[in-house]
Amino acid sequence: MTNDIVPERAAAPATGEWVMVWNDEFDAPEIDRAKWNHVVAGDGFGNNELQYYTDFPENSFIKDGCLVIQALQRAYKGQHYTSAKLFSQGKGDWTYGRFEVRAKLPFGQGL
Q1: What is the number of other CB atoms lying within 10 angstroms of the CB of residue 81?
Q2: Among the four 18, 32, 42, 103, which has the fewest Cβ within 10 Å?
């Protein structure tokens, strides 16, 4: 007999299948503000980041069913770049569950 601690798990439905409770397929023409918040700030966030996060449509937009977050080299409010940072806090929050993300990330230092 062991005294292993078993982490708490989300209860599966009686059928044994997962039930989707929140998703975004990015099939609308614009970012769904009911699901996503933009960070609008540029204080480096403890990482000495050189971008100012905006809600500008050229920094974050929907294209071909994908959310595009695009950094642009341009001076803005004391930073050298603009970009976007989105989060769903307060729009859909869970402690446990199954999370799936399909993402393509750029290559390069600081990206």
Answers
A1: 18
A2: 103
Structure tokens at 9: 């798990």
Say whether 31 sits in a helix, a strand or coil. coil
Q: How many helices (H) and strands (E) are present in the chain, helices listed first? A: 0, 7
Q: Is the pLDDT of residue 83 over 50?
A: yes
| Contact assessment for residue 9 and residue 61, using Cβ atoms and an 8 Å cutoff | no
Nearest to 105 by CA among 63, 71, 79, 73: 71
DSSP symbol at 63: E
CB 82 within 8 A of CB 71: yes
pTM of the model: 0.77
